[in-house]
Amino acid sequence: MAQSKCLLQSQALLQIEVYEIWNCGWEIGRLNGRFSEEIVSISGLSYNPRASSRRLWLPLGDLIKYILQTSVYPREHEQLKALREETRHHRWAGMSVPPDEGRLLSLLLKLMNAKKTIEVGVFTGYSLLTTALALPKDGKITAIDINKSNYETIGRKYAQRAGVEDKIEFIESEALPFLDKLVLELKEDELFDFAFVDADKANYTNYHERLLKLIRVGGVIMYDNTLWGGSVLAPVNSKVDRETDGIIRLNKQLAVDPRIEMSQVCIGDGVTICIRIA
Length: 278
Ligand SMILES: C[S@@+](CC[C@H](N)C(=O)[O-])C[C@H]1O[C@@H](n2cnc3c(N)ncnc32)[C@H](O)[C@@H]1O
Known about the structure:
By secondary structure, the chain is of the alpha/beta class. The chain has helices at residues 2-24, 33-43, 54-72, 78-87, 99-111, 126-134, 149-161, 175-185, 204-214, 242-256, and strands spanning 116-120, 140-145, 168-172, 192-197, 215-224, 260-265, 271-276. The chain has two domains: 2-75, no CATH class; 93-276, Rossmann fold (3-Layer(aba) Sandwich).
């Protein structure tokens, strides 16, 4: 128990630093108590950041900074950078996919020559624009979000400027009933190549069942936030919120699901990449 608490703390520090990088550029050293508490409450953790050793987390922050500076920012499309800059001022900026994870998403899409994708959870559209830029000219994305306003007011103009807006079909809807509708309507030769899931963590296991019917064999499902700020390390049988519970259930389910091959990657807030094999 003592050991898992210690791990929980170091994961949370990593999370705090990542958010700090996304939201505040390079000012890692200016981590302040108020900001820490916000992140801690997002993660559902309780601990005192000041009680933890700087040594534990500074090298991780330095490495993330190194990756961003060396290989991520030089390759980030100018409209993605502009979108990221504008999103930084949004009160929910931390919801955006971080740019190093965006690189991984883009690479995967190109690696598998994806043409037809589905995204659950758009917000201002960093992952959506990343996808639209990675798909070929005739690529199509079905993007679902319960609230279109952040995309309309912030994200859409960057997709227009990048010349990829025509690849996007935005569905403003609760995700689950829309996925259910697709399951009934989609024909075998209309299945998706790729899905990116980043909304309503409590429903991740429900999305998984639908998406396994909507993605072709050999297609990929990528789940975001599968480390959920380190809160997946909560002791067994401890009381967690419904989103943490949703992520923990998904992680357990994916680990033994014979219909997929998978790998959980420690990037951003944790990403799990699944290939449908059956
Ligand atoms: C973490 S954000 C998505 C971030 C996005 N991938 C990006 O890179 O900016 C989650 C989004 O999911 C949407 N959402 C939350 N619950 C939902 C639900 N039940 N169905 C559809 N969308 C939902 C929210 O409106 C929010 O925009």
